[in-house]
Design brief:
Blueprint: H1 2-13, H2 17-30, H3 35-47, H4 51-64, H5 70-81, H6 85-98, H7 103-115, H8 119-132, H9 137-149, H10 153-166, H11 171-184, H12 187-200, H13 205-220, H14 224-237, H15 242-254, H16 258-269, H17 278-294, H18 298-311, H19 316-328, H20 332-345, H21 350-363, H22 368-381, H23 386-399, H24 403-416, H25 418-431, H26 435-440, H27 453-466
Helix pairs in contact: 1-2, 2-3, 3-4, 4-5, 5-6, 6-7, 7-8, 8-9, 9-10, 10-11, 11-12, 11-13, 12-13, 13-15, 14-15, 15-16, 15-17, 16-17, 17-18, 17-19, 18-19, 19-20, 19-21, 20-21, 21-22, 22-23, 23-24, 23-25, 24-25, 25-27
């Protein structure tokens, strides 16, 4: 037995794993109570993907040395590989009962509980870790992240603030707080924390993400003109801060100065080497495509976005804007495909479903049912999207189906946004044969109306004929 173990160890040292596997198999056969032989043989079986056989070896090793946590740790790792989380939890718990100071095992358990949404148990593990190391910033942030997942926002902010008291220049905690305030719509506080992030280290990944979000924050706070002036001057003196240049480009975009925005975005995507931040570059490609589309250059927009798609094939926002560009260019089948690709990557954006519905309608009337389905999904995700209610009611009314519901959803659109729904109300009112309502409707033509000109005049004519 011991001779085979010695030989197997030598073979492992020479990286002769196949030979070592045979040798350790012989070792456990000749000496079944050899702890070392069982552990080495189990490790080799694990490495070869023979998991169930490895489990038997580690379990036997644990029987041989029941006070040793190592076999249980190996079992925990193996069960995780086999996606047997409960057995992994049991194994790691057994190891911790033998050695409660193994902080890494609490973290392993925390990861398992988080993966199974057992946030309270997850929290217990991190709090135990924090007891061993009270100043560990990453552990404190992990606890805060858990409170976020539990939707206990105030507790999460307090924990992040605790981390900042221990390390005032911690970008991760600053950024996390900024993101919370941004999602809550508290743009003034979001601005404060995003600006702290970029002020610490402007070239870090979190600073770049802060720059990307700050454009919206400044817009919400009506600071576009002020910040354009400030960042124009700043970028002249800080030519390597491409995050600031990106922010300046998007500020111009939000002011509808698309040509100047294009110039800044093109400068960013042209950068090579260490200055070429991938996240910033892809977002710049997306905005370039959008801005070219806004000035009527659909061909250029599509070319740019198609190139970006080869660089970042799993970016849902990119495929969304590509779908919009195809739609504007009259390439409706490709628009449908791009928007469906975006939804396949992220199905939480109501705008994508809305424009997919529009693309289906533009493609052909035979896709009526697909179009209806997308508008309904858009409404499920965003119950205040007037355009989706508009389109849904219009399509039902045009087909002469579900007319009562058509009128109701158009009324809902009118409540949400009076500028977009007046003509639709008249159209639905006529089709439902409520002539008196139809006559009383005010017929306005607005740029945002989805009603085609010919259909509008036919509607007006039909109303007066019916009188």
């Amino acid at each position: 037995g011991p001779a085979y173990v010695f030989l197997g160890v030598l073979q492992l040292g020479k990286k002769e794993t196949d030979k070592a596997l045979v040798t350790f198999e012989k070792a456990v056969r000749y000496d079944p109570e050899s702890y070392l032989a069982r552990m080495q043989y189990g490790s080799l079986l694990y490495a070869k993907g023979r998991y169930q056989e490895a489990v038997r070896q580690f379990e036997k090793a644990a029987e041989i040395q029941p006070d040793n946590p190592t076999p249980f740790i190996s079992l925990g790792q193996l069960y995780l590989k086999m996606e047997n989380r409960q057995s992994a939890i049991n194994a790691y718990t057994s190891a911790l009962n033998l050695n409660p100071s193994r902080v890494d095992l609490y973290l392993e358990l925390a990861n398992i509980y988080e993966a199974t949404n057992q946030f309270d148990k997850d929290l217990e593990q991190y709090e135990t870790v924090l007891a061993f190391s009270p100043t560990n910033i990453r552990t404190i942030e992990s606890i805060a992240n858990l409170y976020l997942k539990k939707k206990e926002i105030d507790k999460a902010i307090n924990i992040y603030q605790q981390a900042l008291r221990k390390k005032p220049r911690d970008q991760e905690s600053l950024f996390a707080i900024a993101e919370i305030y941004h999602k809550q719509g508290d743009y003034q506080l979001a601005r404060e924390y995003y600006e702290k992030v970029v002020g610490l280290e402007y070239f870090s990944e979190l600073a770049i993400k802060s720059y990307v979000t700050l454009a919206e924050v400044y817009d919400k706070l009506d600071l576009l003109n002020e910040k354009i002036e400030e960042y124009t001057e700043y970028t002249k003196n800080n030519i390597s801060d491409f995050g600031a240049k990106y922010l300046l480009a998007e500020l111009h975009e939000r002011q509808n100065d698309y040509q100047l925005a294009i110039e800044y975005f093109e400068e960013i995507v042209a950068k090579e080497g260490f200055l070429a931040n991938p996240f910033l570059r892809i977002n710049s490609y997306i905005h370039l495509g959008y801005n070219y589309g806004r000035i009527g250059k659909q061909k250029e927009a599509i070319t740019i976005l198609e190139k970006a798609a080869t660089l970042s094939p799993r970016n849902p926002g990119l495929f969304f804007f590509l779908g919009l560009a195809y739609n504007r260019a009259g390439r409706y089948q490709e628009a449908v495909e791009a928007l469906e690709e975006s939804i396949g990557l992220d199905d939480t954006n109501s705008e994508v479903f809305f424009f997919l519905g529009e693309a289906y309608e533009n493609l052909s009337q035979k896709y009526y049912h697909q179009s209806i389905e997308q508008f309904q999904k858009a409404i499920l995700l965003n119950a205040k999207k007037a355009d989706a209610f508009n389109y849904l009611g219009y399509l039902w009314a045009e087909r002469g189906v579900r007319l009562e519901e058509a009128l109701e959803v158009i009324r809902k659109a009118l409540e949400l946004d009076p500028k977009t729904a007046i003509t639709w109300t008249a159209w639905a009112g006529y089709i439902i044969k409520w002539e008196n309502m139809a006559r009383r409707c005010l017929l306005f033509w607005t740029p945002r109306s989805r009603l085609k000109t010919t259909r509008l005049f036919m509607t007006i004519l039909a109303i007066f004929i019916s009188a």
